[in-house]
Amino acid sequence: MDTPSYFPVPPGVGMEENFLSLDDILLSQERLPVRTECAFPRLGFLEKSSDSQDIPESTKMELPLWLSKGLYEKKRKVLSVELPKVYKEGWRTVFVADPNVVDLHKMGPYYYGLGSQMLHFDSPENSDIAKTLLQTFIERFRRTMDCSQNAYNEDTSMLVGRLDCLEKVLFRSGQNGLNSFQSWEKGQASQLTASTLVLNYRKRKLVDVQA
Asked: What is the mean pLDDT of residues 96-112?
């Protein structure tokens, strides 16, 4: 039996990160709109739209999530992070009305992961963001799993293409469970075998009896 060269590492849960997870590594590269609260000497090369050697105060730019989290401090204001549009009040209203109509992959594709990471930054809207994330997941979870259980041997590319990365993992898990159940019903499931420990114990017991 071929041994896979790579075993997928699941992403972190909520605000936590798993630095061995490819999904979390890609998530950390998502760019956030920020505004500098002080000057950044000799870092003008980070802002491609400016020819200045420095980044002046109150400059609006985009930085990756990992760098934004590293520079952000609650006591000493180095930069302020703005909410991406998908987490602002206008889009939150859409999610409250009917989250199933939204193409999360197009808006994300790390809607839940990035939204959870945004809670690291102080914002008066954090509680509303957290509630919307949870309610959106609950409302879409039932439809995602229903589709995974009722799409046996069907083309699901259109449906999966609208899902967030977390939802895609759940969808695949649901389909794997359905395929395993279908195989079991047809008698195609692998037979149960005794473990190595049990076989070795029987061998030792047989040797003791013969002795």
From this structure: 91
